[in-house]
Every structure is written in structure tokens, then in C-alpha cells.
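Question: Send over one sample?
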Amino acid sequence: MEPDIEEELLCVEAELQDVQDQIRALLDRQEKLYERQSELQTLLDGYKISQSAENKAAPVAVEDWSGSFEWDSRADDTRFNIFGISSFRANQREIINAVMSGRDVLVIMAAGGGKSLCYQLPAILRDGVALVVSPLLSLIQDQVMGLTALGIPAYMLTSTTSKEDEKYIYKALDKGEGALTILYVTPEKISKSKRFMSKLEKCHHGGRLSLVAIDEAHCCSQWGHDFRPDYKNLGILKIQFPNIPMIALTATATYKVQTDLMEMLHIPKCVKFVSTVNRPNLFYKVLDKSSVGKVVIDEIADYIRGSCSNNESGIVYCFSRKECEQVNELLSLVAKELRDRGISADYYHADMDVVARGKVHLRWSKNKLQVIVGTVAFGMGINKPDVRFVIHHSLSKSMETYYQESGRAGRDGLPSECILYFRPGDIPRQSSMVFYENCGLQNLYDIVRYCQSNRKCRRSAFFQHFGEAMQDCNGMCDNCAYGTEIKEVDATYHAKIIASLLHDMQSNDQRATMLQLVDRFRAKIKASAGASNTPASDLKKEEVEQLIILLILDRVLNILSE
């Protein structure tokens, strides 16, 4: 009897090994299929947008915007003598020529590529008032401050505008009195202020509206990572002013987003300029994040103290306003040491007092403050060229968001670093925030794959996501520069336990958090340690968390709650 049992046991174990080999092969195949699915979706979206353009507009000859135009000398003079720029960057001259020719234009240009000049320079060359719609007060204040310093009559009409300035602006729009070249407004002003729209119509009827610029245009699209409801109403500008050239600009837009915003802004025949997403001067790095908050802050402080001792500017991004204040509080614990090294920090979030927020922004812009600890409310479009580092204390919600935020670094083209602190425990909290967004979970999973990868080039993830051909990283990410010794572990047994535990918890209508699942897994392993034929578990807590996230990404598990 006993030999029969032993023989059957050997057969079962052999079959189990065979099944495990098949599972491993299937998981490898699944990962490759996911990558191919993403590539095919990008190609399909590109095909659809080209077909849509063909259906909506008659075929036109490809226009050469790099040739000679009557305003060339004035453009060069303005570029050099007003903006102090020695030469145009890639596509800038062509974009300006298209706008000056009265065409609608869509610009997809990486952060630091010089998007602002593409509408600011034509605003100066064309007679009248250029309207610029921008999503954030910090961005508007930064732009107006910079233009005013150059002697360009630029104003903003927002909730912070003084009564005196508001009266001046409305008079300029209504009667053409006073100097007003560029006017910045938020999208809410377009959708909610009848008085403003009335004045803008008078400006147009008087022949004084020169162009309309929609900055951070990805906010128009429901598929965009920073969708803003009031941006949906900006199409009214093209309806009301059909003959005024519109230029829409963003650093990030997939084919789907491009299609969406072209339709929403009513510019189907626009001239499109798409630049590479590659920022060769940025070094991308992902670091393991401690579960102890103070340890993370100590590491951030050590980095700033060690790598940026020359008072180089930087940004530390946080998940929320509450967390932002906590990070700043923890930074203050090492404030004396930082001050001894010439490092100072302050925080910035949307709910701060407007005056206090403006002072923080101004101090940082003038290099009187080295580090801003900010939420996503800070940084979009900020035109500070010498930001040497952008540190993410928390996980971004998508590749687009991370690309935008990390793109605040190195706008002057000099070497800069983008560091993201990652721990699996941050994922459930972020997933609860994006659950109801279009493709929210899929977008989150993409950035998690970026963080989890120990082999794949960080930069290649951006190329793949935005549907661009691969380019050499040249050692400008941690995986390409350092490489990592990978230890492969057969976690089939552990994965089965995790899946079984989660199934039991959900069957009993229990909310499963990452911490609870890890604790139950470790208890289960401990209880089974003495059982025969039970593999020993040498997985650390962090490795168990990584395994859980891998099972979520491979769609073996459903998402966990916070």
C-alpha cells in the first residue's frame, strides 16, 4: 500500500511542477500580450485620428512652415531683443509662422521645449489683445510676472485681480484704451462670467482680438490626466470668434486625447506639431520608499544636502494637501541642518491664503527659497528654467501626470534628476482616488509597472505610452546606468495562498487592505511551517507586497481598499 502512495505522490508532484511551468510560461506570455495590446491600441488610435481628419476636412497639400515669411525679421528681432533668446528651438519658428498666417494650431511639445514663446511672440507681432486661457493661478502669476519684467503689457483677470486692474482691463477690451497685449484668464472666467464674454465680444467686433491660446490643452479632454470640466466650454471661443487663430498647447496628449480636444475646441483642420517626449537631460530614478514617514524625509534631506549643495532649486511633490503639510513639518525637523547647508523649504497648496501662496511662489522664483513642497496644484507650466531636481514623495496617478510633474526639471537643458519614491502600500490609496476616472485604474497600473520594473529602461516607458518610436536612453535612468541583479523566486505557492485569502475575505464581505492581506499571509505561512510538503517562505514583508501588486497588475487579484 505504502509504495502505491509514494508512487502517486511522485506523480502528483511531477504534475504540479508541470502545471507551475505552464503557469510561468502563461504569465510571461500574458505580459507580452499586454505590451502588444498597448502598442496596437496606440496604432489604432493613430489610424482613427487620421481617418477622422480625412472625413472632416478636405485633403490639403502639406504646407511648409519653415520657409520665408514677411514677418521673419520682426520675429527674430522680438525673439532676441525682447525675450533674450538667441535662436528658436525645434518647431518654434514653424508654429509661430502657422499662427501668424491665421491658422489654428495644435502643439504637443515636451516640457521645457518653449511652448509659451509659440503664442507670446505672435501676440506681440499681431495687433490687438491675445487671450490666453490657463488652468492654474500659479501658472498665470508666473507668466504675467515674467512678461511684465520684459516690458510686455500682460495682465491677468482672476479672483485675485485688484478692482483697479479689473477696471483697466475691461476698459481696454471695451474701448481699446490703455496698453494690453496679453490677457490671461482661467477657464472658469470663460464659462461663468457673462460680463467678461460681453467685453471680449466688443474687443473682437472692434478688430482688437489677435489670437486665442489654450494652454495645458489636455485638460479639455475627458481622457486627459488633468481633466477640468470648465475646459469643456472653451469650444465657444471658436464658435464666437471663428476667424481668430487658436493655438492649443500641451506637453502630453495621446492620440485619443488629441482627437478629443480637436473636436471639443472645434479646430478639426488645425495644423498639428508633435515634438518628441524625450528629455535627454533628465535622469529618471525610482527608489524604495520606507513605510516610516520620517525616514523618507531624512533620505530626501540627505539627497538635497549631498547632491544640491549649491542652493539648486527643486520641487518635492506630495499626494495631498494634508500629506504636503506633514512633509513640510517633517522637513522642518532638519531645517537647522538644511539652513547650515544653505537649503530652505516651504510648502504650497491650493487652499492656502492667496497672498501667502504668492509670496512662497515669488521667493522660490527668485531663488530666495530652494525647495517647494507642493501638491499637483503647483508646477504645471511653471517657467523656472533652473529646477535641478523633482522628487516625488508619493506615487503619481498616471504616466501623463508623472511626465508633466517631473518635466518641471531641467527646462534650461542642463542635467537634472527626477526621483520617485515608491512603495506598494501607496497603491490602494491612489486607486481609490482614480477608480471613477476614465481608464483611471489602467493609468495607475501603467505608472506602477514603471516603478516595479527593475530591468526595463525608464525612458522607454514614456515612448511606449505616448506612441513614439524608441530612442536611446544613453544611461540616463537608473536601470540603464546601474543595472540591477535580479533574483528569481518561484512564488507560485505564495500566490495561491494570497489569492485564496483574498477570496475568503471578499466572500465574507470584508474589506481587504494591503496590510491585512500581508498579515494574514504571514500568519498562514507561520501556521503551515510545520506541515509536510509545505515550501518554506523566506519572503520579506516588502517582497510579499510586491507579489500582491504583481498579481493585481496581472489581473489575478482585484484591487484592494485603503
User: Anything to note?
Assistant: Residues 2-56 form the longest helix (55 residues). The chain has four domains: 1-55, 60-274, 282-481, 487-562. Residues 187 and 230 are 6 Å apart (CA to CA).
